[in-house]
Structures are given as C-alpha cells and as structure tokens.
Amino acid sequence: MEGGVDYLIDERKKAQFDVEAMKVAWAGSRQAFELSDRIAKLVANDPIFEKFSRPMLGRKELFKNSLRKVAHAWKLIIDLRLSEEEAKLLRHYIDEPAYTDLQWEMFIPAIEGQGTEEQKRKWLPLARKMQVIGSYAQTELGHGSNVQGLETTATFDPQTDEFVIHSPTLTSSKWWPGGTAKVSTHAIVYARLILDGQFHGVHGFIVQLRNLENHTPLPGITVGDIGMKFGNGAYNTMDNGVIRFNHVHIPRNQMLMRVSQVTREGKFVQSDVPRQLLYGTMVYVRQKIVADASKALSRAVCIATRYSAVRRQFGSRNGGPEIQVIDYKTQQSRLFPLLASAYAFRFVGEWLKWLYTDVKQRLEANDFSTLPEAHACTAGLKSLTTSATADGIEECRKLCGGHGYLVSSGIPELFATYVPACTFEGDNVVMMLQVARFLVKTVSELGYKQPVGTTAYMRRVTALMQSNCAVRTAEEWLNPGVVVEAFEARSTRMAVACGQRLAKFENPEEGFAELSADLVEASLAHCQVIVVSKFVEKLQQEIPGKGVKRLLEVLFYVYALFLLHKHQGDFLATGYLTPKQASLANDQLRILYSKVRPNAIALVDSFNHTDHLLSSILGRYDGNVYPKLYEAAFNDPFNDSDIADGIHQYVQPMLRQELHSAKL
Ligand SMILES: CCCCCCCCCCCCCCC/C=C/C(=O)SCCNC(=O)CCNC(=O)[C@H](O)C(C)(C)COP(=O)(O)OP(=O)(O)OC[C@H]1O[C@@H](n2cnc3c(N)ncnc32)[C@H](O)[C@@H]1OP(=O)(O)O
Ligand SMILES: Cc1cc2nc3c(=O)[nH]c(=O)nc-3n(C[C@H](O)[C@H](O)[C@H](O)COP(=O)(O)OP(=O)(O)OC[C@H]3O[C@@H](n4cnc5c(N)ncnc54)[C@H](O)[C@@H]3O)c2cc1C
Fold it and tell me: Which residues of this protein are catalytic (predicted)?
C-alpha cells in the first residue's frame, strides 16, 4: 500500500454519527453551512487563489501576487454581488493576510464606533467602495501595549483650524500597522491630543498618507515596510509599515469625535460616552480573533488526524500492516483534546459573537453598562484561545512526525501565520491582566454587589468555597453539572485567594504587580469556566442528526476532563478535589478517547475544510499521502536540475582537493 486512500475509506465507514448533520452543527445552521460551502468551492476552483506555492515566493513576488488576489476578489464581490457575509467568507477561504483585513476589520469599525454621524456619512461610503483604503496606526516603535504611553502628538492649531500630527522622537514612529507600508491611502492614527499646551489623552485621527492619483506619500510623511516577518509566505503577504510624521496638517473634523470633541476655539469637550470606547475597535477585533481560533486549530487537527490514520509504525505481524499511529494511546491523548478544543472554541466563539452584537447595540443606544464585561471576556478569551491554538498547531506538527516539518504538510505556514495572534490586538499576558482587574473588582464587591454575566457563578461563593466534589467513580464524572461546578469552584477559590493576598498590601497597585503571575492563572481559570459552560449551553440546545449530540457530549467531556487533568495542581491545591477524584477523571478520559477513536476522521471531515484551504499533502481528503509527497518533492523548483548552482564552484574543488586554488 503506497498511499492511505483505503485507510481513510475504512475510517469513514466507522463513523457512528451523521457527518452531514455535524457539518451543519459546526457551521451553526444549514444556511450558514451552505453559504460557507459555496464560497469555499468558489475559491478552491479559482486558479488565481492558488496558494500551495506561496512559501516558495520571494517577498516582492509574494506581495504583488497578494495584490492581484485582492483585486480579483474585489471584482468577484462586485460582479457576483456578494453580501458582506459572503465577502468575509471569501476572505477566509482565500486565506491570505492582506491590507483589506485592516480596511474592513479595523479602519471601518473604528469610524463606525468612534466617529460622529457626520464623519460616518463622509468616510464610510468611501471606504466601503474602496475609494479610500485605510489602516489602523496605533502601535509605535517604543510603545504598543501601553496605549496611554504613545508619543505621537496631535496639536491643535487655532489659526488654521487644523491638527498638526507629529512624530517627536524615533520611538514615536508608527511601527506595525498592516497595509500601511505600500498600500493604504489613509490611516487612523492614535496620538496624544494637545490643546494650548495641555495633554488631553490619546485619540484617533484620520490622516491621509498618500496621494490618491499617483500613490506617492504626502509631504511630511515618511513611510516604508518594517521588514520580513517569521516564516515563508505566511504574514509576509502583509505590508506592515513604519510611518514618521513631520508636522502634517489635517482638518479639525478628522479627529474621531464621538467620545470627545475639540471646538473651533480649541476647547476640549468630554461627552457622556466613556473614554474606553476609544478602545472599542480592539474589542471588536478580539471577538473576531476568538471566532477565528477554531478555524485555525481545526485545520491543524484535520491534517494531523487524517495523517495519523494513514501513517503506520511498528507492530507488524507476519508481514501484515503496521499499527496506525492514531491507535497509540499517547497519540490520542495529544490529538483528541485538540480536536475537542476546536469544537469548544467554535461554540464559545459563536457565543462571544452574540455578546458582541448585544454590546454593540447597547453602545449605539448609549448604554455602556455591559462594556467592562465585554472587554474582560474578549480580552480573556482572545488570550486563552490564541495561546491554545498556537500551541495546538505546533503539537499537530509533532503529531505528524518528520513530514509535519515539510512546508507541503501545510503546518509550518499555518503556524507562522497564526502565532502573531498571541501578540497582536493585545499581548496575551497583558490581556489576562485585564481580566484579573475585572475579577479582583468582582471579588472585592462580593459582599454587597451581585456579580452578573460570566461571573454570576460567584454569587454562590460560600457554597463554592466550602463544599467539595462528591465524585466517587469515573462514571460520575459524566455529568455536566459536576464538571462545571468543579471549574467554578476552582476559579472562585483562586480569585478569592488572590483577593485576600492583595488585601495585605498597603498599595493595591504594588500588590497587583507582585501577584500578577498568580492573577494570570486565576484569570485563565475563570476563562476556562466560560468555555466549559458555553459548551454545556450548546449541548442544552436541540442538535439534530443521528448521533451528533452524543458525539458532541463526548467531545465536551474530553475537553473539560483534559483541562482538569492538565491543571489538576490547581484543583488539588484549592482543595476542591482529592487526588483520587483527579485520578478518576483521568480514568474517564481514557475511556472517552476510545469513544472518539472510531469517529475521529468523520469528526474532522465535519469541519468541511477543502483541500485548497488545508493546502496540505498530509491532510488530503483522499489520504493519498505518499505518492503526492513524492510527486511534490520532484516538482520543487530546487529539483529542476540534478546539479545545483554552486556545486561546480564550491563542492567539486573540495572533492578534488583543489580548494586552496579555487575562486570563492
Ligand atoms: C491571520 C491569523 C488570524 C487573524 C484573525 C482573523 C480575524 C479577523 C480580524 C483581522 C484583523 C486584522 C489583523 C489584526 C492586526 C493587528 C492589529 C493590532 O494589533 S492593532 C493594535 C492593538 N493594540 C493593543 O491591543 C494594545 C493593547 N493595550 C490595550 O488595549 C490597553 O492599553 C490596555 C488594555 C492594556 C489598558 O491599559 P491601561 O493603561 O491600564 O488602561 P487605561 O488607563 O487606558 O484604561 C483602563 C480602564 O479601561 C478599561 N479598558 C481597557 N481596554 C478596554 C476596552 N478595550 N474596552 C473597554 N474598557 C477597556 C480597563 O479595564 C480599565 O478599566 P477600569 O474600570 O478603570 O479598571
Ligand atoms: C503581525 C502583527 C501585526 C500587527 N498589526 C498592527 C496594526 O495593524 N496596527 C497596530 O497599531 N499594531 C499592530 N501590531 C502591533 C501589536 O498590536 C503589538 O505588537 C501588541 O499590542 C503588543 O505590544 P508590544 O509589541 O508593545 O509588546 P510589549 O508590551 O512590549 O510586550 C513585550 C513583553 O512584555 C510583556 N509585558 C508588557 N506589558 C506588561 C505588563 N503590564 N505586565 C506584564 N507583562 C507585560 C508582554 O507580556 C511581553 O512578554 C501588530 C503586531 C504584529 C505582530
């Protein structure tokens, strides 16, 4: 047997559930599934969107090719009259970071959230028709996480009724904004507002960067690319830029003025809208990043699972086939929790989208009451899901052995493109510290204020602190109430313990800094409560299709009990579990893996990923791995000739012992 075609055919026969119904459950609805499937095929069948060769291209060629793809996609959007939802799916399946990500996911949302009605009327139609192309220039060479520490200045000049945008130091150079180096005509630039010598906080300003006719940078603007980034292909399709402003004048009405205004006389007016709304675009994108995590993780898991069923090692008896590596318990204990995590992140992402839609509607109606919770949830879940996904993709590479390291496995580029998600839109540790602030506040108010939303479980603080887990057999872990309660008790106890230790510090900020590592762990525990509970809520809904709900229940227990096993130190140290109960959870986990095993291939088929999206020989739907790996090796341009450049010049003289006289 040269390929694994028959192996995957056999595997698909083992499925104990309706794969088509699971595809619908994964997509969210039949309509969402059909839409997504249609756009996936549109992209897969269009040669312009080919991406297998991307890691082999040089930077300039890669970038030009990316511009071509965007232009082609925009043409399709217009010609086929695609809706915004369809256009976003098109972006997902094209699978290439490009300047349009910043246009649609940051520039436009920033104007929508922070602009006045007049500013929206002017800028949004231009941006939505791509008549201006915008980016989001917040981070600087010297400051990224600390937004209030930004150095770029926007000084009001009452004489001309303009702001003067200036980069006073080298470290104030804008550094990282995607789409800026070569493409964007405008940017939302975050800068310190200075009125009559007084600093009035950091605000966003719409600044034109390039001449719309010939694309040259405007006077006073120095702009360029910050250089190659990690990995081949990957995020190098994006032109992340550096910008320096030398006293660039913009009209006063280009400050985004929903939160605060500057009058013609140069007076600062703070509206009732909280200052935190300036950070609203980041809340929006963090929510998108959570939704995206399940897509990235499911891709890696799909590749590793299919390949694990094709790959065989050891155990051959009488010349028969060796064991499929997916049958090793160690392989299952590494792979199946990731498979379960992909489903868990899919459902929590769905919920977070709902939460964001709700908060957005409230903000539009000037109801800001749920903003702190939305901020804590988006920051925390962004951190949890991207860290787990980045680690998960790397684990999938290792699960594929040596072949996982080949670019043709699809995993290296996926990893290189994905990992910056742990840093952009808020470094993951900095984001967990935001959750910590929210938790500390919640805990300190427990005596007189009922926690709401995702912290509502802490209303039962006394019970969660005092009662202990009642599980006596491995079977008793198969109860969602028991599992969720264990996570809630561990989280409450960790948060309360942090609160008690913080109270011993005279200066709360000093205490927060000193205990920050523990606070990050408590925040992670709280975020895990959210993911676990949202999975349970999903299971409480009607989920049609033979065996679909049962398999999702299995995945829920795999996800939760795997986390419990991984963090058993917390569960034991907080005293909620005994070592025996933790060990029973692990026993149950092994039983669960054997329930996943026959369904593994069908569960990854349910993601409905096309071979185009996976761009992986190891993860091919048909399992025809070895012939295609062999073919791809000889299709590599490096194999065009048997004698590589340099052989005659540098190797042959060595073989002939003539190196001393060779021209090097
Ligand atoms: C291809 C791979 C996958 C990609 C995913 C695909 C998804 C599609 C999307 C595509 C997107 C495009 C690509 C993305 C490119 C990347 C872009 C960027 O990275 S843009 C720059 C992002 N920068 C950051 O995230 C900076 C991080 N820092 C901060 O957010 C803040 O400064 C801070 C949270 C660290 C707070 O700092 P601090 O100084 O302590 O705070 P303040 O004094 O300013 O405010 C404190 C107060 O405000 C509350 N707060 C903070 N942030 C928010 C918020 N966002 N919303 C609401 N409230 C907020 C905070 O809790 C405090 O409240 P208080 O009650 O006072 O305690
Ligand atoms: C691919 C990519 C695309 C990007 N695109 C954009 C863009 O379009 N527009 C834009 O404006 N920006 C963009 N960025 C910048 C990005 O938002 C920042 O890099 C990010 O917010 C992190 O900030 P930083 O680089 O200042 O990290 P730093 O804050 O310097 O982090 C360095 C280390 O310090 C730690 N640290 C920092 N502060 C604290 C603290 N208070 N407590 C404990 N530890 C701390 C961090 O955990 C980290 O380990 C992009 C970045 C990348 C990688």
Answer: 425
